């Protein structure tokens, strides 16, 4: 009969050593109580940070929604302004055409009437001619002599037929 000793078997030696761990060795290989407490504090700190991040994200999302709403409102306002500008441009164009027609009618009506110290009315001197006419009618007291009264009456008759 052969008797084998476990001391010669490598597996038995490892198993024996494993079984002979002391309590300190077990504590060193497992979490110590202080490690668990430290991990618990770290978890609490991480949970706090997660909560703060969630709150910050919620605030950012609310700010983004508000910003998107403001952008949408601004875009609507811009569209309204563009539409209003288009209408104003069309009105200006219509007024310009009307003014052009009136100025041509005035030039034709006053073509034979000469104001003192001025050439006959034309497109080139139209503004100066109109300014002089405006001055004459605004300051009629300066034009009280019979010659000027006749001139003012001639102008009135000449422009009488112009439809404004």
From TrEMBL:
* Molecular function via GO: DNA-binding transcription factor activity, RNA polymerase II-specific; RNA polymerase II cis-regulatory region sequence-specific DNA binding
Q: Provide the coiled-coil residue spans.
A: 36-98
This protein's GO cellular component annotations are:
nucleus
**Where does it live in the cell?**
Nucleus
The question of whether Repeat is a record keyword is answered with no
**Keyword list, A-Z:** Coiled coil, Nucleus
Alphabetized PANTHER family for the sequence:
MYELIN TRANSCRIPTION FACTOR 1 (PTHR10816:SF10), MYELIN TRANSCRIPTION FACTOR 1-RELATED (PTHR10816)
Give the protein's recorded name: MYT1 factor
What species is given as this protein's source? Answer: Ceyx cyanopectus (Indigo-banded kingfisher)
């Amino acid at each position: 009969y052969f008797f084998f000793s476990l001391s010669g078997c490598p597996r038995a030696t490892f198993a024996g050593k494993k079984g002979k761990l002391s309590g300190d060795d077990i504590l060193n290989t497992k979490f110590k109580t202080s490690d668990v407490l430290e991990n618990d504090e770290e978890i609490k700190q991480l949970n706090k940070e997660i909560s703060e991040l969630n709150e910050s994200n919620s605030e950012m999302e609310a700010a983004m929604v508000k910003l998107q709403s403001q952008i949408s409102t601004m875009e609507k306002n811009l569209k309204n302004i563009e539409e209003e500008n288009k209408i104003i441009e069309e009105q200006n164009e219509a007024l310009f055409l009307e003014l052009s027609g009136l100025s041509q009618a005035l030039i034709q009506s006053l073509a034979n009437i000469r104001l003192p110290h001025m050439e006959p009315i034309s497109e080139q001197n139209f503004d100066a001619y109109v300014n002089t006419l405006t001055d004459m009618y605004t300051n009629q007291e300066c034009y009280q002599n019979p010659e000027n009264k006749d001139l003012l009456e001639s102008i009135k008759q000449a422009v009488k037929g112009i439809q404004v």
